[in-house]
Write a structure and sequence with these properties.
Layout (H helix, E strand, L loop, with lengths): L7 H8 L2 E6 L2 E6 L2 H17 L3 H14 L4 H13 L3 H14 L4 H13 L3 H12 L7 H14 L3 H14 L4 H13 L3 H14 L4 H13 L3 H14 L4 H7 L4
Antiparallel strand pairs: 1-2
Protein name: Type IV pilus biogenesis/stability protein PilW
Keywords: TPR repeat
InterPro entries: Pilus_4_PilW (IPR013360), TPR-like_helical_dom_sf (IPR011990), TPR_rpt (IPR019734)
Length: 254
């Protein structure tokens, strides 16, 4: 999940933020912002999770939930935690809880769809993606169409994947991953001119990656352009010698 991670010192200062009020002549310390404290705990939990400290991650996420159990973002973060520690049943429960609180939370639908795809529940994943993009206030439509494309490609539905990647590019024409995925599918479907066109578009917006160079190698090999194959192969091995794609190239597996 793409989230803003605050520094630990900022988070801790948020957690300690209190105000003083006077009741019947006595000073009473009370929480200044329970929701802010919940968000801070949530962000701290995510930060620990990204550092690999799952115990502290869960501790802080549970604290966030104790502050505010009606925030779908906290349940979504908890679902992410359960994904990381490989507890899919708990993750799905957390996603469903988030949606029960906010039925039109497109971020939750997007993340839930990504989770379902990893669980190979492709039809259910697609349903969540399409629900998300139909939320009129949702701004990450391109991201979700791209996720839908990746899921469709993973399930072997290449024509459907092309449609979703094209939709993603309609919202953001300079999306490297969508450009590269479309190129790869066109190579597989033997639409070589289309594949070349998308690879050239990719080169205008992004740098070489093992996947992009491997797609070039597949394309040039399919068209029997051995000189180009060797050129891209040398670039692949020189730039990314430890990559799986380099090993495939060196083993002539293309």
């Amino acid at each position: 999940m793409k989230k803003l991670i605050l520094g630990a010192s900022v988070l801790l200062s948020l957690l300690g933020c209190v105000s003083e009020t006077t009741v019947a002549g006595k000073s009473v310390s009370q929480s200044m912002d329970v929701n802010g404290a919940a968000k801070a705990r949530m962000q701290l939990g995510i930060q620990y999770l990204q550092q690999g400290n799952t115990e502290q991650a869960k501790f802080n996420l549970e604290k966030a939930l104790a502050y505010n159990s009606r925030d779908p973002e906290i349940h979504r973060a908890l679902a992410y935690y359960y994904e990381v520690v490989n507890e899919p049943m708990q993750a799905e429960k957390a996603y469903r809880q988030a949606l029960s609180i906010s039925r039109n939370d497109a971020d939750t639908m997007n993340n839930y769809g990504t989770f379902l795809c990893r669980e190979k529940k492709y039809a259910e994943a697609e349903e969540q993606f399409l629900r998300a993009v139909n939320v009129t206030t949702y701004v990450r439509v391109g991201d979700t169409y791209e996720n839908a494309g990746l899921c469709a490609r993973e399930s072997g539905q290449l024509d459907k994947a092309l449609v979703y990647f094209d939709n993603a590019l309609s919202h953001s024409p300079r999306r490297p991953l969508s450009l590269l995925e479309i190129a790869g599918i066109h190579v597989t479907q033997e639409n070589y001119d289309e594949a070349r066109n998308y690879l050239l578009q990719y080169q205008k917006v992004a740098s070489d990656t093992p996947q992009s160079l491997w797609t070039w190698i597949r394309l040039e090999s399919a068209q029997n352009r051995e000189t180009a194959v060797r050129s891209f192969g040398r670039r692949l091995v020189n730039k990314f010698p430890q990559s799986t794609e380099s090993q495939h190239y060196l083993n002539n597996e293309y």
